[in-house]
Specification:
Strand order of the largest sheet: 2-3-1-4
Distance between the termini: 19 Å
Low-confidence stretches: none
Shape: elongated
Helix content: 25-40%
Radius of gyration: 12 Å
Number of domains: 1
């Protein structure tokens, strides 16, 4: 299995960005684990999510990451 971690920032809940990202992951045959999730407390506050994605091949993971970047995801720096 091959994995990569992405990050999402902004109004990811009310804009449905988080929903679209998670749907895309599952639809493409990958799985995810929520590593960190912070929800903004006030209307102007942004939310943050760090999600680890696991896919059956490097090729399918790369294709998925490309699609997720188009929806605003960023690849998290490796630790």
């Amino acid at each position: 299995m091959f994995s990569e971690t992405i990050e999402l920032r902004g109004h990811i809940i009310d804009s449905l960005t988080l929903t679209k990202i998670l749907d895309q992951i599952v639809t493409q045959g990958a799985s995810f684990n929520t590593v960190e999730f912070r929800i903004g407390q006030k209307r102007a506050d942004q939310s943050f999510a760090r999600i680890e994605i696991t896919a059956p091949s490097q090729e399918s993971l790369d294709q998925l990451i490309t699609r997720l970047r188009e929806q605003g995801a960023e690849v998290a720096p490796r630790k």
